[in-house]
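Instructor's aside before we start: the two examples that follow are unrelated to each other. I chose them only because their records fit on one page, so don't look for a connection. First example below.
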Amino acid sequence: MADFFKDVEQKISEVVEELGKKTGDTLEIQKIKSDIRSLKRANERDLIDIGRMVYEKFQHGEIRDTDYITFCEAIEKREETIERQEEEIVRIKEGM
């Protein structure tokens, strides 16, 4: 009978441990998704700024592609970060 209770205790312990890991994974996924949303909002702001700059330069006849390199590099860097974070979500979900 003692073995039975020991087995039950072991199973309960394993289930609790697994639930804890899944909860941790879920929280990590939510944090990453929040980071992705922040990065996307920053990209949207930069795209608006680029549009405003293009229009102002257009109005003054001063369109030059090199004026936008900084914005484009920042957007590109955030897109790469988003891609890495989305891959991390997939990796975490596969481990669940």
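Example two begins here.
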Amino acid sequence: MTIPDKKHKGLKRIWNAFFYSVNGFKACYRTEEAFKQELVLALLLIPLGLYLGNTAIERLLLCGSLIFVLLVELLNTGIERAIDRISFEKHELSKESKDMGSAAVSLSILLCLFSWITILFF
């Protein structure tokens, strides 16, 4: 049995993966207000992080922490969509899964905030 889209190898697989990623970004941007807000904030703060960081490590932490928030938001949205795909019916495990994804986003935002505060003020 061949899994759909697993038959491609090499450059064709990489090419397809790139467009799947673009589609994922588009879908998240189109449907998730939190992702839009975080993306706008990242686009504004990444240049500032590159300017304010004194070393390569500081610039990496300032910018990387913003990208990390986006990454966790994408994963959280994927979890939410998978749960919704299964059923819109209220279920405690579905609620817990979505709450855990939300908690992960909150922790990524705290990490980002602590990184910026530590680098800029200490």
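The helical segments are 10-31, 33-52, 56-86, 92-121.
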